[in-house]
Write a structure and sequence with these properties.
The chain contains 13 helices and 18 strands. By secondary structure, it is of the alpha/beta class. It folds into 2 domains: 1-16 and 374-473, Immunoglobulin-like (Sandwich), CATH 2.60.40.10; 20-315, Ribonucleoside hydrolase-like (Inosine-uridine Nucleoside N-ribohydrolase, Chain A, Alpha-Beta Complex).
């Protein structure tokens, strides 16, 4: 592994100053059936650790198939109040954490009953009005609505827009909307997709067994599942990590099933939210019309499954080969086992985002110099054009670490992305600078290469760089 001492040490010398939060943030409103399952509370605890990297514009309590008549905004407020106790310490590590009062002011109630029964004329709620107001705000950025429970509050907002705006204005507002949902947890999701065919919509419809999002807590057969174990959660999140960590509940059904709805909005150098097919911490999705047979139609969800009427962003299959650490020689090599699964788009990054979660939880109680902070990836180039048979070089040599930690590198061709699906072999992946050779093509083809840059702090933290290479004949 190459050391990055020359560029890292000056940064470490200034390490007492908080790091600067990303300037460009994604706008987001959360719809949550909090208290239907402890996993919503878990997801809120994690979310507030990234509240300076996502522009949160609404926290709406909703119903779902698992909680059809109750709303619990007070449970969201309780977690915000715990955030208030640690926000001053978070600001010692990175700028931009919002004032707790601002987050409390964003808490709303959505539709008071189940699904489409509570959607229609005169049924606007504080939550649905909040969505419409956010869409009408003078802000060029798209608005993400992440749906952790039922989607009927979003359905009401869309109903009102269609009923009260001109067709042209409705198209403009809906064109700003991006929806990322955790399966369908009431009957409004299918109505939304059918009624608004141009709406950007990410979902794994059907039974939960078909959900990409389950990759956050399902076991990798034969893999290392340590970072989702109850012992890991106790030691790294819940116990001895301040008042916010203490509110992280034990797992009842599945750990943080809702978190993948927003994981890809965290700026880490990998995720490009407008391109779900490029992959990220929240999984990878492709645009097509899924047949019912692939949606786990007999699986548990409590919601009738309707045939999809148009393409949606949904499950994508990844072929993933976990790396194996070696005590001598090359630090990591590909393991013997390959995993081909729609959940692999999350599994391949899971240890990275769990370690990131743990590190941020330590930010709530420790000073800057007693916590780890992620490396900064700097690419020599993010786009290249090469010819068939031409050798080309990819480099992240100027990457650095704010704590002065040594860095490790892993380069790989992300085969599922772009127009060239066959593996493009190269030199040793564990270098800051690597060589590849363009394959023979008959027309321009695009290939994506990812570098994982990981520091040697505790816990080790990872950031990424993406190089898009166009190969021409």
């Amino acid at each position: 592994m190459a050391l990055i001492g020359a560029t890292a040490l000056p940064a470490a010398a200034a390490a007492q100053a908080p790091l600067t939060a990303p300037a460009e943030r994604q706008r987001m409103i959360v719809l949550s059936d909090i208290e239907a399952d402890p996993d919503d509370s878990q997801s809120f605890v994690r979310l507030f650790l990234y509240a300076n990297e996502i522009d949160i514009e609404g926290l709406v309590a909703t119903t779902s198939t698992h909680m059809k008549t109750a709303l619990h905004p007070e449970s969201i407020r309780r977690i915000v109040q715990a955030y208030a106790k640690v926000q001053p310490n978070l600001l010692k590590h990175e700028t931009g954490y919002p004032a707790p009062a601002r987050l409390l002011a964003l808490v709303r109630e959505g539709q008071p009953g189940y699904g489409m029964e509570t959607v229609g004329a005169g049924k606007d709620t504080p939550g649905s009005r909040l969505i419409v107001e956010a869409l009408e705000r003078s802000d060029a950025r798209p608005l993400w609505v992440t749906v952790w429970g039922g989607a009927n509050t979003l359905a009401q907002a869309l109903y009102t827009i269609r009923a009260t705006r001109t067709p042209q204005e409705a198209r403009r507002l809906i064109g700003k909307l991006r929806v990322s949902t955790i399966s369908d947890q009431d009957d409004s999701g299918a109505w939304i997709r059918r009624t608004f065919p141009d709406l950007f919509y990410i979902v794994s419809p059907g039974g939960y067994g078909a959900g990409t999002w389950t990759g956050i807590h399902t076991l990798i057969d034969g893999g290392d599942n340590t970072t989702i174990s109850n012992t890991w959660l106790r030691d790294n999140i819940q116990q001895g990590h301040g008042p916010l960590g203490a509110l992280y509940p034990d797992v009842a059904y599945g750990m943080e099933g809702d978190t993948p709805a927003y994981l890809s909005l965290i700026p880490n150098g990998l995720s490009v939210p407008e391109h779900p097919d490029w992959g990220g911490w929240g999984g990878r999705y492709e645009l097509y019309t899924p047949p019912i047979a692939t949606t786990d139609p007999s699986g548990f969800s409590g919601v009738p499954i309707e045939p999809e009427t148009r393409p949606i962003w949904t499950n994508a299959i990844d072929l993933y080969t976990p790396q194996v650490a070696k005590p001598y020689g090359r630090a990591q090599i590909p393991g013997d086992r390959q995993i081909k699964d729609f959940r692999a788009g999350i599994w391949r990054w899971r240890d990275d985002f769990q370690n990131d979660f743990a590190a941020r939880m330590t930010w709530t109680t420790r000073p800057f110099d007693r916590a780890n902070h992620p490396p900064v990836v700097k690419l020599a180039a993010s786009r290249l054009t090469v010819k068939s048979g031409q050798k080309f070089e990819l480099s992240a040599v100027d990457s650095s670490d704010p704590d002065g930690d040594s860095l490790s590198f892993q380069w790989f061709h992300y085969q599922e992305i772009g127009h060239w699906r066959a593996a493009i072999p190269g030199g040793a992946a564990n270098l800051h600078t690597v060589d590849f050779t363009g394959p023979t093509v008959t027309e321009p083809r695009e290939a994506h290469f990812i570098v994982r840059v990981t520091d040697k702090g505790e816990p080790p933290l990872t950031r990424y760089g993406r190089v898009i290479v166009t190969i021409t004949p």
